[in-house]
Design a protein that fits this description.
- Two copies of one chain form a homodimer.
- Chain A has about 230 residues and is an alpha/beta fold.
- Chain A has helices at about 1-30, 45-50, 75-80, 100-110, 155, 160-165, 180-190, 210-220, and strands at about 35-40, 60-70, 85-90, 120-125, 140-145, 165-170, 200.
- In chain A, strands 3-2-4-1-5-6-7 form a seven-stranded parallel beta sheet, with helices on both faces.
- The longest helix of chain A has 29 residues, at about 1-30.
- Chain A is globular, with a radius of gyration of 17 Å.
- The interface of A and B includes residues 93 and 146 of A.
């Protein structure tokens, strides 16, 4: 019984990988660097994009593909800052998918003006489990972990912390008000993903956002064919 | 294609409902009230249980079934407070299930001393999407929403807020440090689940915890056959 279940899951992931490759080819043909941005609900993904994208400068044309179960709150926020944004809702039919997959992203691509972009950030559904299991054709995976979520998160959700190549440790402006032990968090982080780059940031105060912006700019500057 | 997908999902939920009913019968036979506690990662479920359960008094014998993708951090915390706790990990095989379902709970029941309990709290995997879709045989569903997650959460994850009968609005000790608009949160909450009972609490300072404890005590006091 368990065997069968694993088999089905493998098939799903095989199918996803095939579509992710097709997405990736489309991104590379258009010369667009794609970042998959993941976190738990309310960790600050949208605010970090509001802070970083409008000030990237005219040399990096950035857009966002916004994944949500329902609604367009985040897309509206980004659009009001003149960032090109396409909304993708996962809530059709059933109670809603808890992650984006390659096919959902593919279905949205006709709406995304790839030819006018250098950088596309895909803001995933807020969830620390399933988004890490589904590649969408991205070049980079970044996750946001807010200090308000507690220092045990890397140990409890290891796949997510292992899957990303940059961790934004957000809401550090609240550190003084919390019992959060940063050293303990970093210990857990290095246990599951030794040495993964990490940036201490506060989307609220702007602390550390310049380095997040620099990171995005650096990724967009590398020709995607060269990866 | 979409039709087929919905069919499969319905079958999964049908199977889940059948097992949930069997769990429920076991709970009622043993006279145990069962609460399914859900939230995003790091909202404070465990701390709210640490605060509430040890002081329920000897008239309510409480235990916890602790759901996690991996590890036993929360179970260890509760066990150190002399709360009987059984760990249930969803991470076997694949990258980990993002929710508990009725069958996982059923598989753990032989370890749970139902005959020695009046109240069993099942702490679900931290996730605002899928746990709301899977009944586990519980009598009550409670969710925790931390103010650090932002005021838009009911609008973005409506199924979760609709599925529960009590919302614990946690981390209110941080309200002064945040830009969180409580009235806006309550507006969104009442839009998706009008009038749902809600308690403002701080697991950290203890504010409002007495009312959460009273709620648990009241549920445990109702004979489960009478529901």
């Amino acid at each position: 019984m368990h065997r069968v279940k694993v088999r089905v899951v493998e098939d799903v992931l095989d199918a996803n990988a095939t579509i992710a490759r097709a997405n990736r080819e489309d991104f590379e043909r258009a010369g667009v660097t794609v970042v998959n941005l993941m976190s738990a609900p309310g960790a600050g993904k949208t605010t970090l994009l509001e802070r970083a994208l409008p000030e990237l400068g005219s040399d990096v044309r950035a857009g966002v593909l916004e994944g949500d179960v329902q609604g367009s709150f985040d897309a509206d926020r980004l659009a009001s800052m003149h960032v090109p944004v396409v909304q993708l809702n996962t809530g059709n039919g059933f109670g809603g998918e808890c992650h984006l997959d390659a096919n959902m992203v593919r279905s949205a691509l006709p709406q995304v003006p790839l030819g006018e972009l250098d950088l596309l950030v895909v803001e995933n559904v807020g969830n620390l489990v399933c988004p890490a299991e589904f590649r969408i054709g991205e070049h980079h995976r970044v996750m946001v972990s807010a200090v308000t979520e507690g220092e045990d998160k890397p140990a409890k959700y290891p796949l997510m912390f292992r899957a990303c190549e940059l961790v934004l440790i957000n809401k550090v402006d609240l550190l003084e008000q919390l019992d959060f032990d940063l050293q303990k968090f970093l210990y857990h982080l290095d246990a599951v993903h030794p040495g993964v780059p990490r940036l201490l940031v506060s989307a609220r105060t702007g602390e550390g956002v310049e380095r997040w912006r620099d990171w995005l700019r650096a990724q967009a500057a590398v020709p995607v064919e060269a990866r």
